[in-house]
Amino acid sequence: MRSTAAGRCSLSRLWMKRSTGQAILIVTVAFAVGVGGASMVQAFQGGGGSGDSQHRPAVSDEHTTSTQAAQTEPAATSTTVPAATQSARLVPPILKPGYAASFDALARTLSGPVGLAVAPLGAGSTIVLGDDAAQDAWSTMKVGVLSALLRREGTLTASQQILATEAITQSDNVAVNELFAELEAQTGGLDQASLAIQALLRQSGDDTTQVNTVEPGEGFSTFGHTLWSPSESVKFYRALFLGCLLPRATTNYVLNLMEHVIPSESWGLGSAGFVPPLRTAFKGGWGPESYGYLVRQSGIVAYINGSGSSGAVVSMFSDAPDFNTGTEVLTAIAQWLRQNLNLVVRPGLACGT
Predict the structure, then answer these.
(1) What domain range is 340 assigned to?
(2) What is the pTM of this model?
C-alpha cells in the first residue's frame, strides 16, 4: 500500500562521513567515480531492508540448486566500469574457506531452489552459488529506475524526493511508476526510458540484461519483468556503490534510501544480525511466478574504514511456494553470509573511462 507519510530526503544529509575504524556492510553492486578505492564510500547511515509492493503470494519451483565455480569479472573497458587489477588474483576469495560445501549443506535445508552471487567491493572474483538463472527483477529494478532519472535530471524536486523515498524504502509501486512516467517524459517514451536504465547496466559491465518493454498485464510494471541474473545484478549494485554511475552526492542519496527500508521489509540482509561497525543497504523484490513465488534481494555490506574496499555486494533469490517462505529463506542465506563473508581489506577498484 502507498504510504500517506510525506518524507523528504536531502542530498546533504545522506550517507554522512564517519570516523575511520567504523564499518559498513552492503549487499548489492557499486562503483567509485573515476578513482580507486580511496574515494569509495566512507560511511553508511542506518540499516534497512527492502521489498516489493507488487502483489503477494503463490508453490514449488522449476530450477535445481547447484554450486558453480567462482567467476571473475571482466576488466574495465569503455563500457565496463569496475576495473579489476592483476592484484585481484592475489587476494583471497570473498567467502571463507569451505564455503561451497557449507552453502550446499544450507541449501539442502531450504525450501526450493536458491541462487546467490557475491562480489567484493575491492579486487577479487565474483562467486556464484546455487542457481544463476535470469529471473524477473521485480522491485530490485526500482533502484535502476531512480538512478536513470537522477542520471537524466541530476537532482530531484521536493515531490520527486517524496516519491523516491516511498519507492525505495517502502517499495511503493505507485510512486515508482510516477518516477518512471517522468523518465518516459524526459526521454520520449517507454522504449527510450527503458534504454536509459539499460545504459546504466551496460556501464556497470552487464552486457546481457535487456530491460523489458513488454506490458505484462495485471498491473505489473514493464521494468519489473526484466530478466536479471544474480551475477549481473551485483555488477550494477557494485557500480552504484563505487560511484561509477552517478555523482558521489547523488550516489549517497540512493544508498541512504536503501539503508532505511521500513521494518516490515527488512528481511534478508536486514535481519541477518549485521551490527556496527558493519552496515547494510539493500533492495528487495518479489512476485508470483508460474512455479510459485520469487523473492529476491540485492545489497551491500561494508566497513566504514576509509576505503570501502573490504565490503561485499550480494544478490540472492528464492524460488519459494509463497512470499513468507521466500523471505525466511533469504534471511537464512543472509545469516549464513554473516558467518562466511571474508571482509579483508583489498586493493581498490577504479571506474573505467
Answers:
(1) 15-132+230-351
(2) 0.78
In angstroms, the CA 95 to CA 90 distance is 14
Can you spell out the DSSP letters for 224-291? GG-EE-HHHHHHHHHHHHHTSSS-HHHHHHHHHHHT---GGG--GGGGS---TTEEEEEEEEEEEETT
Q: Mean of the per-residue pLDDT values for the chain?
A: 80
- Alpha-carbon distance of 125 to 58, in angstroms, equals 35
Q: Does the pLDDT of residue 26 top 90, yes or no?
A: no
What 3-state class would DSSP assign to 297?
Answer: strand
**What DSSP line would sit under 27-45, residue for residue?**
BS-B--TTS-GGGS-----
CA dist., res. 144 & res. 308, Å (int) = 22
Residue found under cell 539499460: 198
Domain assignment present for 3: no
How many CA atoms lie less than 13 Å away from 73 in the CB half-sphere?
A: 35
Sign of CA dihedral 177, 183, 188, 194: negative
296-336 pLDDT tens trace: 999 999 886 545 678 999 999 999 999 999 999 999 999 99
Nearest by Cα to 315 from 150, 204, 175: 204
Number of domains in the chain: 1
**Within a domain: 326:** yes
Which conformational region is residue 138 in: left (phi greater than 0), alpha (psi within -120 to 50 degrees), or beta? left
Structural domain includes residue 186:
no
Q: Distance between CA atoms of 21 and 30, rounded to whole angstroms?
A: 21
Q: Cα dihedral sign for 29, 253, 25, 55?
A: negative
Is residue 81 situated within a structural domain? yes
- Spatial contact of 309 and 349, defined as CB atoms under 8 Å apart: yes
257 touches 7 (CB < 8 A): no
